[in-house]
Write a structure and sequence with these properties.
The chain is globular, with a radius of gyration of 22 Å. Helix 4 packs antiparallel against helix 13, helix 14 runs parallel beside helix 16 and helix 15 packs across helix 16. The protein is of the alpha/beta class. A hairpin with a 2-residue loop joins strand 11 and strand 12. It has 16 helices and 14 strands. The strands form 3 sheets. Strands 4-10-9-8-7-5-6 form a 7-stranded mixed sheet, with helices on both faces. The chain has a 4-stranded mixed sheet with strand order 1-2-3-13.
């Protein structure tokens, strides 16, 4: 097995920071996906000090090509000069005021210009704000309570209650959310048949691990309309990544409402609900209100990001570079004969490495070994390659070279009776399954 720096030295400061953080912060992080639930203890970085372009440096000074990219919120690259300049200029005027700031109008107009379904827009700070606002709107508009979900839609009770992480969510709330399967229209039809005239909304990620089958999104739209439910596209990730107008533009299917978050401002905290004016005007009657909903730095960052998306071939380059990852990793999986437990799928801008079991070894054992080895070689990844405009050919070459080294290690380990001799850490456990 290829060995690198001793783990105890490589991640010493990260481990010390984590021990300190765990005394005052549950999980040691504000986000599950940035915590030791996703990064195995002892062989992972836990704290990043800085980022530039497609690269980040942890608190131990280790450099990584970053394919996590702030959980897909970074689309242009870390420290993008145009975004930074817009934020610095706005900072001279102020960040929050006693009344609205004109930049709110400018960003809303830009979204109406770019997004097919957008006639009116309201802002939040996280994707969960936007999806929850959309569901509240749909319930107010239809006078119904039930919601059909497909994909991941945030931490709020109405959604998270439908997952294994539902502790603390009242059963009455959990009972109103129903899951259906992606690319399986029959599973949605079954829900409508079981609870006729009770669904306020159908909310789904228009694409994720796999592309929509021909006609799938159109059939979902037709079913929702037929049964009096609003169609909501959760474009928290696909927005401004699949196309400037989101997956709805790419696939030509326009929902009643759409939500945006990651990528809207290249990492600054802002989200949006956008949709038909007839529905959106109910925002004046429901309560969807934030002290920091009109915070100007994030709005300035958003305006700069969206303007750059229109001015430069950002999406095209992201797709081109991501296509190189998709093709290159696929060839390496075939080269090393590990396709029985590993495959790559998804859209070029957002590709997934999907691990499977290889008896007697479980997928989480195999993934843990994979992460241990790629982190040591300067690649940051936890499940999907979240491409940015800043990823260069050299960055992709580094990724593919790393995988070319690590894939045979996986193959050799899986062929052995136990993975324990290969692991320097405990095996990860799944948070919950959403896709």
């Amino acid at each position: 097995m290829t060995r690198t720096d001793p783990m105890s030295q490589r991640y010493r400061n990260s481990e010390q920071h984590l021990e300190r953080a765990l005394k005052v912060i549950p999980l040691g992080s504000q986000t599950f996906s940035k915590s030791f639930t996703q990064y195995p203890r002892g062989v992972s970085p836990y704290f990043i000090q800085k980022g530039l372009g497609a690269r980040v440096w942890d608190v131990d000074g280790n450099e990584y090509v970053d394919f996590v990219n702030g959980l897909a919120s970074i689309t242009l690259g870390y420290n993008d000069p145009d975004v930074n300049a817009a934020v610095q200029a706005q900072l001279q005027e102020g960040t929050i005021f006693s009344l609205a700031h004109p930049v709110e109008i400018h960003v809303a107009e830009k979204l109406v210009e770019m997004v097919p379904c957008a006639e009116m827009v309201r802002f939040g700070k996280n994707g969960s704000d936007a999806t929850s606002g959309a569901i509240r709107l749909a319930r107010a508009y239809t006078g119904r309570d039930r919601v059909a979900v497909c994909g991941y839609h945030g931490w709020q009770d109405w959604y998270i209650g439908s997952t294994a992480r539902h502790r603390g969510v009242p059963k009455a709330t959990r009972d109103l959310t129903h899951s259906f399967s992606y690319n399986d229209v029959a599973s949605l039809h079954k829900l409508f048949k079981e609870w006729p005239d009770q669904f306020a909304a159908v909310i789904l990620e228009p694409a994720n691990v796999v592309d929509p089958k021909p006609g799938f999104l159109e059939e979902v739209r037709q079913l929702a309309k037929q049964h009096g439910a609003l169609l909501v596209f959760d474009e928290t990730i696909t927005g401004f990544r699949y196309a400037n107008g989101g997956a709805q533009e790419l696939y030509g299917v326009v929902p009643d409402l759409a939500t945006f978050g990651k990528g809207l401002a290249n990492g600054f905290p802002i989200s949006a609900v956008a949709g038909r004016a007839e529905v959106m005007r109910l925002m004046e009657e429901i309560f969807f209100s934030f002290t920091f909903g009109g915070e100007t730095l994030s709005l300035a960052a958003s305006l700069a990001t969206l303007t750059k998306l229109q001015r430069l071939p950002v999406v095209r380059r992201v797709h081109e570079q991501g296509g190189k990852v998709l093709a290159g990793v696929g060839k390496l999986i075939e080269k090393h004969g590990i396709g029985r437990f590993l495959r790559i799928s998804g859209h070029p801008s957002w590709t997934f490495l999907v691990f499977g079991d290889a008896a007697p070894h479980g997928q989480w054992e195999i993934k843990t070994l994979f992460l241990q080895e790629i982190f040591a070689r300067g690649v940051l990844f936890i499940g999907s390659h979240n491409m940015s405009y800043a990823h260069s050919d050299a960055d992709i070459e580094h990724l593919l070279h790393t995988y070319d080294e690590v894939f045979p290690i996986l193959g050799k380990a899986v062929a052995s009776p136990s993975l324990k001799p290969y692991l320097r850490c405990a095996t990860l456990e799944p948070l919950f399954k959403v896709r």
